[in-house]
Predict the 3D structure of the following.
Amino acid sequence: MKKGKGSRFLRKTVKIILYLFLFSLAYLLVCKWIFPPVTITQLSALVRGEGLKRDYISWDEIPASVKLAAIASEDQLFPGHGGFDWKAMEKSIQGNTKGRKKRKRGAAASTISQQTAKNVFLWQGSGWNRYIRKAPEAVYAKMIEWVWGKKRILAVYLNVIETGPGIFGIEAAAQHYFHKPARNLSRQEAAMIVACLPNPRKFTVKPMSARVRWRYPQILRQMNNLESDPDVRELIR
């Protein structure tokens, strides 16, 4: 009797998971053309009482300097990889076995594709939450690489990323921090916003945290190094 109930429960659970996955695939297709109506991270900001400031803008409205800053800071191999930076992942795994200091490499293993998949379809969090999320994150990252393509991934990424408490996307960040549209951001301002991305509620743009002050000049230098790369130039134009 108990065995029969257990089997029925398992079958129902599998069906629910399957239906949710099929729904998410349909949602993934829709998001090739429209921006996500809301994300779990945005809902979390509302629950925390931080509000929700966002203003989605098209690919053509995002300046090349912002696209370049994101690639330079977050994923320099983005134009050429298939969703994963295997070398960075290997270094991250090696770092995790060699002490606390080297664990900081872990963030670098997450590509823009993976971050976009996490932001749009999944949830934030560290510890055990992160490990549970990694398998579906990899699936969605590969799917958006196939279905969306690089420009769409980067456009969605720059529109949904959290850039401060309750602030999402490059346009809302530009308006909040610099009182101007994203299209008018300088290279320095773009680098300053991107520098907060590891933890935008802790690493603030204004007032400028020590981390952002230290990081954004590095991003500017990386932008200068990358902008002559033909693949990068083709992507961000």
Notes: Confidence is low (pLDDT under 50) at residues 99-108. The longest strand covers residues 162-164. Residues 1-30 form one domain.
